[in-house]
From TrEMBL:
Function: Required for a late step of 50S ribosomal subunit assembly. Has GTPase activity.
Annotated gene: ylqF
Record organism: Paenibacillus planticolens
Protein family membership: Belongs to the TRAFAC class YlqF/YawG GTPase family. MTG1 subfamily.
Keywords of the record: Cytoplasm, GTP-binding, Nucleotide-binding
Protein name as it appears in the record: Ribosome biogenesis GTPase A
Superkingdom, natural source: Bacteria
C-alpha cells in the first residue's frame, strides 16, 4: 500500500494518534527490523509524548540476526525496550504481553496497594504503512480483525481486542509517516517494500541493493547468483551496473540482440531481497 503523504495527511494522522493516545496506557512502536531507523517516524517521540513504549523489530525473519541484536542494544541504550518479532508467523509475539505488562507494572502495583483490582493494560500499535501493523493485530487477536492496508482518514468506531485477560489492544493501529526527505531512507524503504517501486526507478533501487550487498553481504550475493568476481570500487556506478548485468545474464533477463534487460534484472534483485532469497539481510546498522 502506498500513501502519498502531504502535510495535511500528516496533520490528520497525528491528530488521529493523539485521539487514540488518550485511551491507552502503553504504545507498541512497530519498526522494520531490516531498517529500524529508516522505518521510524521522525517525530515519534514528540507525538507519543512520553507514553510508556515497547519497540518491536518486525520482519526479523528477513533481517540479519547479528545486526538485529545490535539494534536491540541501541534501543536499550535509548531507554527503550526492544523485541525482535515475526508477526506473520507469530515468532516471539507471545513475549509482547509480558513486556507490555512490565511497562505498566508500577501502575498495577499502585492499584493493588490501594486494594483496587487492576484492569487490563490498554495498548496501541503504531507504525509506518506496510511495517506489519495489521498482521500483528490479527496475530495477537488470534483471528483476522484488521483489514491490511488501513488508510489514515478512514474513521470507524474504536473496538478493543482482548489479548488474554491482561491486555486490551485497539483494533485500528496508529499510522505514521516515514522520513522520506532523506534519499538514503527512501532507497532503504523502497528496497524493503515499504514504499512502492513507482516512487523510485527500479534500477535505482536495485543499484542501491547491489551496492549494499557487495559491501556487506558479498558472499551471499555471489552464492545466490553464481557470480565469481565482485568489483572493489562500489562508488563507481559503472562497476555496480556490471554486477547487475551479470545477475541479469545469469537469470536470462536478456533482450533481443543479447543485451541485458536492466529493468527485468532489477526486478529480480528486488524480489529476491524482499523474499529473503539472498539470506537474512539488514540494510541499516546502528
Ligand atoms: P501494515 O498494516 O502496517 O500496513 O502492514 P501489513 O500488516 O499489511 O503487512 C505488510 C506486508 O508485510 C504484508 O505482506 C505482510 O504479510 C508482511 N509481513 C508482516 N509481518 C511480517 C513478518 O514478520 N515477516 C514477513 N516476512 N512479512 C511480514 P504483503 O506482501 O503486502 O502481502 P501479503 O503477504 O499480505 O499477501
Amino acid at each position: 500500500m502506498t500513501i502519498q503523504w502531504f502535510p495535511g495527511h500528516m496533520t490528520k494522522a497525528r491528530r488521529q494518534i493523539e485521539d487514540k493516545l488518550k485511551l491507552i496506557d502503553v504504545v507498541i512502536e512497530l519498526l522494520d527490523a531490516r531498517v529500524p531507523l529508516s522505518s521510524r517516524n521522525p517525530m515519534v517521540d514528540e507525538i507519543l509524548k512520553g507514553k510508556p513504549r515497547l519497540v518491536l523489530l518486525n520482519k526479523n525473519d528477513l533481517a540479519d540476526p547479528q545486526v538485529t541484536s545490535q539494534w536491540v542494544k541501541y534501543f536499550a541504550d535509548l531507554g527503550l525496550p526492544a523485541l525482535p518479532i515475526d508477526a506473520a508467523t507469530g515468532t516471539a509475539t507471545k513475549e509482547i504481553l509480558p513486556r507490555v505488562k512490565q511497562l505498566w507494572a508500577h501502575k498495577i502495583e499502585r492499584q493493588l496497594s490501594k486494594g483496587i483490582n487492576p484492569r487490563a493494560v490498554r495498548a496501541l500499535i503504531v507504525g509506518i504503512p506496510n511495517v506489519g501493523k495489521s498482521t500483528l493485530i490479527n496475530q495477537l487477536a488470534g483471528k483476522k480483525i484488521a483489514a491490511t492496508g488501513d488508510k489514515p482518514g478512514v474513521t470507524k468506531g474504536q473496538q478493543w481486542i482482548k489479548v488474554g485477560t491482561e491486555m486490551d489492544l485497539l483494533d485500528t493501529p496508529g499510522i505514521l509517516w516515514p522520513k522520506f526527505e532523506d534519499q538514503m531512507v527512501g532507497q532503504r524503504l523502497a528496497a524493503t517494500g515499504a514504499i512502492k517501486e513507482e516512487l523510485l526507478h527500479l534500477d535505482e533501487i536495485a543499484l542501491f541493493i547491489v551496492r549494499y550487498m557487495v559491501q556487506h553481504y558479498g558472499a551471499a550475493l555471489q552464492e545466490r547468483f553464481g557470480i565469481t568476481e565482485l568489483p572493489e570500487d562500489m562508488d563507481n556506478v559503472h562497476e555496480v551496473v556490471k554486477v547487475m548485468e551479470a545477475i541479469g545474464r545469469k537469470r536470462g533477463a536478456i533482450v533481443s540482440g543479447g543485451k541485458v534487460d536492466l529493468d527485468k534484472a532489477s526486478l529480480i534483485i528486488i524480489r529476491d531481497l524482499r523474499a529473503g532469497k539472498m539470506g537474512r539481510i539488514s540494510l541499516e546498522k546502528p
